[in-house]
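Quick entry between incubations.
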Amino acid sequence: MQPKIDPTSATSSHRLRVRFCETDLMGIVHHASYLAYFEAARVAWLRRRGVTYATWAALGWHLPVVEASVRYRAPARFEDVLAVETVLAELRSHSMRYAYRVLRGQECLAEGETRLACVDSAHKLQRIPKEVIGILCSAETQPDADGV
Amino acid sequence: MQPKIDPTSATSSHRLRVRFCETDLMGIVHHASYLAYFEAARVAWLRRRGVTYATWAALGWHLPVVEASVRYRAPARFEDVLAVETVLAELRSHSMRYAYRVLRGQECLAEGETRLACVDSAHKLQRIPKEVIGILCSAETQPDADGV
Amino acid sequence: MQPKIDPTSATSSHRLRVRFCETDLMGIVHHASYLAYFEAARVAWLRRRGVTYATWAALGWHLPVVEASVRYRAPARFEDVLAVETVLAELRSHSMRYAYRVLRGQECLAEGETRLACVDSAHKLQRIPKEVIGILCSAETQPDADGV
Amino acid sequence: MQPKIDPTSATSSHRLRVRFCETDLMGIVHHASYLAYFEAARVAWLRRRGVTYATWAALGWHLPVVEASVRYRAPARFEDVLAVETVLAELRSHSMRYAYRVLRGQECLAEGETRLACVDSAHKLQRIPKEVIGILCSAETQPDADGV
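Done. Structure below.
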């Protein structure tokens, strides 16, 4: 049975500022940079629930992205401050899905999703352990450290 | 009316070798690198039909990615030689959609799609001109220069 | 005559957290990522003195990097919080040189320098204007917004 | 005693084409991309002497970059075909230094150097083994596969 997710407690927002190296010759943020933004926001989402990389590494596990999608609505630009709203959208036995919205003020610049699988160091699929599921379904427990 | 696309003539294959900087600490190619591979393959797809960046720039146009999706099946690794099979999947009045398969030998490592919009330098949507449509529906006219 | 630079007021520190996509298969931060860290720190250095990209763009100017060097002392790792200490080391008529130290706590992980030239949009060398020189020689006037 | 290097046999050239994602909003190749070009050229240099990543990995070794420098002379642009001339400039007991020139036709766009240390998986410095030194001092033995 899939655990129930409360969208409010399952949402976190991560602020970041667009770097020069993330732009391209169109003068806008390169479309691949948004996957890096999603990733940074997802890592912050986990960290704010007390889950760091060391948590997974101690288990010998990784969370590779197995599906990703982005819809680009309006270009982000150099030095823009963006907020990446991240929500745990689905939690399955061996994978989880996050949904993202990249905001500049009230304007939504991009939306997307990623599905992550839980694998061991040999890339073999693993069941997400109960104690981690509890954490993933919890609200933020750590203060926000914007950008860092 | 949408132009008819012949899948055989609308397909090109681009070979590339995985760079060290495209890997991550999981020891595999980082998931965002595939968007760079799609892009390189798409640019090669256009170049093999005689369309270079200068072609668009002369018109003051760009082809930003407005949607992207990737499904990751198996990890690519450092020094792997990959073939990115690219096909023009749909051609609309103001946008086009490409589909990609990343192959290592016979094994499909990833699949994906991108939709590109035709815009002017102010990011205003433009109709793809007739002469370009003719080119996009044509088969390769230029020899392959793998990797370059 | 070169303006005199006070090393204390000419130094700023920029905090950032290592992103997953900045690592490589050695399990450490890829060496090219440090140039991105220097750049982010330099942009923050300017911003904290009231100089944003819009300031240069309004003049039609850019500050391309014309020389860069890095000495790597110890590896940075995923999720590390780093402080990039940035100092304006030299100010010439048409260029300027910044020096950087990347710190994790008290430990210096990397040091480096970049020289930036002042050019117009045709990449022609330009004299740095007097009013900008005054700003570059000043201390921070803006509060720090770590990471953003 | 340091082995003698014959500059002619110790030089290889690697062709690559500038990718869109390697440009920045100045409309030119981002300065950090040159470190990726150096790296791709160095990996090709080794491969053309029969040394692949598997060679080092079998020994449990890595070759991290411990120093890097670049002097930028003229901007490279999207779709440019570049040749990266790579020469083994110095071979010490525990490290080696490569020098690079990035050429577009006859024009030199950038020059640089990197020093690589030989380390084990715990990042402990290792003596470069005699059999590898012999290979490093040899001329190309493998055909060129440009770009791949």
